[in-house]
Predict the structure.
Amino acid sequence: MTTIDTLKNKYHNLVDDAAFSEILTGSVYTLGARAVSAVIVLTTSIIIARFYGPQMLGVLAMVNSFIVIVSIPSMMGTATSILRLIPEHISKYSVSSAFHVYRKTQYLVAAVSIGIGLSFLLASGLIADKIFAKPHLAHFFALAAIFVSFAALMDLNTQAVRGLRLIKTFALMQVMPSFSMLAILLIASFFFRSNNDPVYAQFASWGLTAMAGIWIMDRAFRSRMRTDDKIHLLKAKDIASLSIPMLMTNSMQFFISQTSVVMLGIFHGESDVGYYSIAVKLATLTSFALVAINSMIAPKFSELYHVEKMEELFHVARKSSKLIFWTAVPILMVLVIFGSLILRWCFGKDFTVAYPAMVLLVAGQFVNAISGPTQLFMSMTGHQKVLRDIIFVAALINIGLSVLLIPKYAINGAAVAGMVSLSYWNIHALLFIKFTYGRSIGYIPLCRQHATHNVRKT
């Protein structure tokens, strides 16, 4: 059998698999959208690096990290809980009931984010001076605090679309933030040309995407609602009580993904942050497959687990892992082999100093790829508390290594911290699944799964 015949057989096995076809279709749309978004983000980064310099890239990275910090408590975990609440209310009650839950969640997030944003607005000077030791960035942090509510609503709307299973709309909303930022940046650069254009373009894109998302969700719900729909009212405190426990996991994920950027901003200059932000952008190209597929499999994992179809659950999980691996590994190989040339040609000679850090980060993403959707699997099968503890330890590892390594080794120290913490998180979760169910959801070619057929539900 030729290689082409082998690939055809693998393709038909995926397409003809009824249990996996819905996930595959949705993943194709989402993968395409994330690929387009990644290209747009890299194009934007190249424009900023070439015309505004690495210092502005560093400022933008710090502003984005600041927004992530402030958005996490503003969201209160609703980005995860809305994925459960919308399908639950549609199946138990009606579309109108789900719309009421969504709208109440939207109001709750808006109110909390405005309050938190105002607090950080008042403290923006202190943050710039005392935390980052860069008082000249105070006005950027002040503006970011004003736009916190837009960033929070943008994230909420994107997740709510997933709850409605609007695959094409979700793909569109994946592209919208990066596309609008690039468009606004090009317009601003052509007509106004200020050194601060990239940061202002980022703020404007959050506002535009948030408003567009609210309009899209409103139309999507109203087109499905009926006058005789049964409505089950859910109080804001009930939404909060469900969502807040999920806040812990989201908070720990922030420390893993953003601590290095913050530490670099504290111990080194904006240029180092800019170099590291490019290394992260390139390295995380290998993870977009995982994120895209995760966007589609959450409802399927939950459904199969709660009806006790464990064989089918692991079948879908393994196929998802295969798809993640074969999508991510080619990108990983290109980055390792040609990464230095890519940095030189796309961003300039100075950016080649980021190559070792990028390779370290890519190694962490490789572990991420072979592990499969561990986080989502644990969240959907009732092990969210164990996952929270694993991520908490990973965050402590990240912080500890960052404090030890970044002052002396700068971006390479930051990359080691990121690689180790991400690898620990995935390997620990993978081993927990293996010891709990007697089988693994990870995928390494030529490594056979010795699955046990007596799988216990815990």
Observations:
- The CA atoms of residues 386 and 432 lie 9 Å apart.
